[in-house]
Amino acid sequence: ASGLRHADCVERSELEKRYTDAVIAARDAPGKEGLEVEQTLVRAGAATLEVIDGLRCLCVGAAAPELVVVLYHGYGAHGVEFAALAALLCERLLPRRLQVVLPQCPSGESWFELDVTKYLYAVTMGEAAKARVVRATPNGVPEMRCRQRQFLQTLRRRAGVAPSQICLAGFSQGAMVAVDLALDAPEPCAGVVALSGFVMCVEDWARKLQGKKGLRVLQLHGLEDRTIPYYTAPWLRDLLQTNGARVTFLPQACSHECGPASASAILAFLAGLF
Questions:
Q1: Of 30, 140, 203, 247, which alpha carbon lies 20 to 30 A from 234's?
Q2: Tell me, what's the pLDDT at 132?
Q3: What is the pTM of this model?
Q4: Which residues, including other chains, have CB under 8 Å from residue 93's CB and lie 6 or more apart?
């Protein structure tokens, strides 16, 4: 006898999935410092590293959460940059069970095509040029919506939570993703955290906001931000507020980053979502 039991047998499809997941996990891994951060959290039992619907994710916090925060990273960045923030949020909100999921855009790609320079140049060309840019839907946004809709469905099943137990968050381009997905979703989410974000497809967002009256949004933006200048922040705030969202808008004494005061503001906001 080989000593193998029936329980040791694995279907070929499962082996293929494990192989694919391993390839994704290796391909989309962060650099050396980021890997060390991940491994420290995993060894401490504070996080797991998973591939969810084709996206490499660091899942920090409770295994059986009451609230899940999905935090999308910015353009050309890595989700592990927010691992320390995620761990802090989960620790400070105990005994409430929070999980923060940090998905990684595949192969270092952007969530959709984004040319911030074009946006900022349009501002110098007058109101008509600015209006054209913020009305436009960037290339790749429809595909992003489809992909992330499926990802979020899989994530909800995995975590055992309802749409109302999902908070969508993001930094920079990730903030645009979070707002867009919250408005595109058929059911309301718990809330949105937009960190140093920008506006796009404003007419589409304004229309979708009519079905999301009362959506809770925390918007933070650095006063010294030179990547997405602070003067653009009210564009997003006003669009959301005018169309019925409940926006908490807090300028931060920082540049294009998640500054020291951001964690306290995010903690307070999340505590109100349970």
A1: 140
A2: 78
A3: 0.92
A4: 267, 270, 271
